[in-house]
Amino acid sequence: MTTREAFLSKIRAAQPASRPRPDVPIFPSPRGEPKTRFTTALTAMGGTCVDAASLGDVQAMIAARFPDAKVIASAVAGVEGNRELSAETIPASLEDVDVGVVRGRFGVAETGSVWFSEDEYVVNSIGYLAQHLVVLLDPASLVDGLQQVYRRPDFKSARYAVLVTGPSATADIEGVLIRGAQGVRSLTVVWLA
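The line above is the sequence of LUD domain-containing protein; the predicted structure tokens follow.
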């Protein structure tokens, strides 16, 4: 037996007996309508929320908000882009995307976060390499808090999951805030069922 194997054997033998995890209650949610709470939290993190009645409204909003966008990659059927997203798309090929358009599975009112898996992003790098991320989100899909997220079956079954709260941001020691330093420069949540 090697030294490594002997060492690991001793660690395994010293493990405490397993015991059931405690049942964590769902704590009461703050008062207020979830959409309003989500919008307040996301705005505090530098994101923006807008309403839309149709996919055509979304297309018009993208054209108005990002008039200089040359490369738009959309993972949402009905919102046109000029860069295809598919399972075969090479993640690094999205490095020049100006606007990425995705649909969030659900949002978290407590934090203003949107949950994505590999199914929503199609290519995970879209959420990090695009300059601007536009997220379609159904207000009916909001959960109150993070405790509900971890109890959802889609959270447990996803191979990849991420909660996104606002655009990327960093601040130096003098408190100078810079958006988009390590990711998207803007995050726009579009309320659309």
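Note on the example: Residues 47-83+108-193 form one domain. DSSP finds seven helices and eleven strands in the chain.
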